[in-house]
Amino acid sequence: MKKFAAKSARPIPVIILADTSGSMSVDGKVDAMNQAIRGMIASFAEESRLNAEIHLSVITFGGNAETHLALTPAHQITHFEDFYATGGTPMGEALTIAKELIEDKEKISSRAYRPVIVLISDGHPTDDWEGQFSAFCSAERAQKATRMAMAIGSDADEVMMNDFINDLEAPLFRASNAQDIIKFFRAVSMSVTSRSRSTTPNQPVAITYDEIPEDDELDLDF
After folding, report:
1. Structural domain span for residue 30
2. Where in this chain does the record put each VWFA domain (predicted)?
């Protein structure tokens, strides 16, 4: 009699590219982002893992670019260290780290569902980013991933961020206050969790930002 192994859930990788440059330290921006990502982790961890399992990685770029949280099943994340804002905006370096992760078939296997890559920034890149941006956007798996972005404040490079996006159902989100940052992350969380419950998790889910409730405790304008 043959023994059949239990079929494990297929992962949905979610990769956050978070601007932690010095300008994020003002007006509560980095504090709101810390709160928002903690909420995202909690939301992902609560989801059923019968069909799909949400995995999360966070790459930061402030002074330098680094992997702040390695790709981990959300329900296994027991500690998240707060961001601290400092330095310039080496976004190109962060995109290279993200490209290497998304193309690594040991970390993201071929059975994974379509990844979600989210870019958050309040400024312009300060490194030599154009070539790295082009390499990222033309990478085979990055092309197939769902790419979203949030521009924080009036100094964000919206032209570049619109070029980053590839999902018509998720246009560039513009955050003008700390509430908006929380709202964006809630919308992304709802989109990903909807996919995890779906019978077709590779299909994108439209994001409706206007339907997300606001956090009344956060009202700082940028």
Report:
1. 22-72+86-211
2. 13-188
